[in-house]
Amino acid sequence: MDKKKAIDESEPGPAPSHAVDRFGFIKPEQSNRPDGIPKGRSIHEREREERRIRKWRKMIGIGGSDWKHYVRRNPYVVKRRIRKGIPDCLRGLVWQLISGSRDLLLMNPGVYETLVIYETSASELEIIRDISRTFPTHVFFQQRHGLGQRSLYNILKAYSVYDRDVGYVQGMGFLAGLLLLYMSEEDAFWLLVALLKGAVHAPMEGLYQTGLPLAQQYISQFEKLVMEHMPKLGQHFVEEMINPSMYASQWFITVFLYSFPFHLTLRVWDVFLYEGIKVVFQVGLALLSFCHDDLVKLPFEKLLHSLRNFPEEATDPDVLLPLAFSFKVSSHLEEFQNEYHKQHEGTSEISSSKRLQPLISKKDEQIRN
Prior knowledge:
Order of helices and strands: HHHHHHHHHHHHHHHHHHHHH
GO molecular function: GTPase activator activity; small GTPase binding
Keywords: GTPase activation
Strand content: under 5%
Protein name: Rab-GAP TBC domain-containing protein
Helix content: 55-70%
Radius of gyration: 20 Å
CATH superfamily of the largest domain: putative rabgap domain of human tbc1 domain family member 14 like domains
Largest sheet: none
CATH architecture of the largest domain: Orthogonal Bundle
Shape: globular
């Protein structure tokens, strides 16, 4: 896989002036696709949502002041509530708290401003070229040289300077773009750093380094998980010469940001930031499991099309995520990772010296897993 072509590079067309959904994306004409919230919610549903927000506010405290204390006292409550979905109005703050990015921000005052204003990047022209390809149907990023595009450029340019070994890859724009929808530029930058350098979970930088070594590892692990949990489908993939790299690479590189409904992506990201990369494997398995009986009957071309275009009912987070959590993958992921490293010893290891020191304890990690 080519580092610089991790995402389809087709240019977006002119921005249509249509109605937008609740997240700010332009709705296609005559679209009946749900945006994650029922129309005309009942008073009972609205009251239930308000109660849920109050519970979260109590859990977080003012500006996140009570968060760490609450997590230590009630770790399984936190995990359960995150899996049910973080209230959208609190999502940006909670993401910063669970990712460790808030700590990085406080430990590095003035660093982001220096990177943006005083440093230059070899990737600047490439970033400018790609800006309009990131969420092209979202109102925040549509205006050429508007606030959204400028903020996205600043973050990507700053990161390419902060970590010159990784630099810039187009897939990173989707991560930064998502974060910008929920927090300020500086907050989004430090959350990107937390993800790529591994503030809490395993670092993601290997997904974007030359040769995409971590993506190759994840693809190998996922292929074995499919064979382990769905041997009939796994064998069908072998017979039709379908490899996960043909359909699942973007699941890992963008954490389902590239081609899945946004309301599903947000729910996946809630869990991903708290529990780590394993949820991407779990959701991937759930998608295949949901469509299993149809997929095992399809020949190569139709099979590949279906794996890149899942039906609407398969992407309902209230259906898909409980199915995903039913797959217990942690022990197998570790086993398959060790096997992969033995097979590729010396060729794909990520230097541990470049990883940030974890901001959570081993006990906390066990709870999340």
